[in-house]
Structure formats: C-alpha cells, structure tokens
Amino acid sequence: MAGTLTALALNCTLKPSPQPSSTEKLAGEVLAELEALGVATEQLRVVDYDVRPGVTADEGDGDEWPKIRGRVVAADILVFATPTWMGHLSSVAQRVLERLDAELSVSDDNGVKALTGKIAVPVVVGNEDGAHAIIADVGQALNDVGYTIPAQGSTYWNGEAMQTVDYRMLDQQPAAVAAQNTVVARNAFHLASLLKARPYLPAV
Length: 204
Prior knowledge:
Layout: E1 6-11, H1 22-36, E2 40-45, H2 65-74, E3 77-85, E4 88-89, H3 91-100, E5 119-126, H4 131-144, E6 155-158, H5 175-197
Parallel strand pairs: 1-2, 1-3, 3-5, 5-6
Antiparallel strand pairs: 3-4
Helix pairs in contact: 1-5
C-alpha cells in the first residue's frame, strides 16, 4: 500500500456542535478501530456547515458544501453516520446524498468517476427500528455514486422502542456493536488497501 489511508466520518446528526451526539459516539468508535489499523481519521458534523439544497457540486451564494466535498473526495474511506428519525435517515443525511449526486457527472479521461475506488460504510444509531432499511438506502446511494461497500460493511445500534435512552448514555459499549465495529473497520481497511494498490479498470 502506498501511503497512509485516510477516513472521514460525516456525522449527519441534527444537533449542532457542541451538543452531545450519539451518532458522533458510534462513528467515533468506528474511527478508533480504523486508527488502530494506522488510518488517519477525522469527523465533522454536516449541520455545522451551511449546506444548501441542490444536486450540484457548488450551489453558490455561501454554500459550504464545497468545503466538505474536498475532504470527501480526498478520503479513502467514508464513514457515513446518521441517526434514525421517524424510521428514516436524517434530513441532513438525505441532503448529503443529494449533493453527492453531482459526482455522477465527474469522470477522469478514462471515464472513471471521482469516487470510484473509495470505500464507504454506513453507521446508523437510534431509539427505534429502521436501521436495516436506512443501511440499504444509504448503501445503494453511495454505491451509485461510485463507492464500494465492503463485506459486512455497516454497523448500527437501536435502542428499545419508545424509550429515551440514547447510545451515548449507555454505561458500556454493547459487545455485539463493538464486535461489528471491528469487522467494519477491518473490512473497510482491507478493501481500501487493495483498491489503492490496484484501482478499478478504466470505464472506457
């Protein structure tokens, strides 16, 4: 592998910094697993930026998506983290997917999309069911714009239905979540290493 791999977590919580965020906690745990493998990591909250609605790379008029996009394109691994609201991904997460749609129009001279060869892993947290459906929707959308999803490439935590305990309030990390975080990180690291050394074939 040439060079150090990098990972970016996009935290799609609805809570601006510095409010406590269970999404930040679970995404951070996945990043910690990646750091243990030598990956350079960072996490940002999308809601802290003025990301305008739209499907282009720059919507102008103060749009701050280009600031985020540069870091997204540069990262080898994207940790796409969203809370569950009303059984669905957050509105912030949906906006990120809509903005990533612009990457379908970006190709190099060989027809390869800008995000092809990058790895993405969905991370979902919430106090209600819906994680599997969100992972399916997010995974399909990220794969559509060029990302590769590794085997067992997602992790989630769902609290008891109609209760008020957040993931960040748990006394200790659930063993099943810890084990899956490790699997996600290792599989993402493995696949990112392979694709960095041997990129996909030209599209044309």
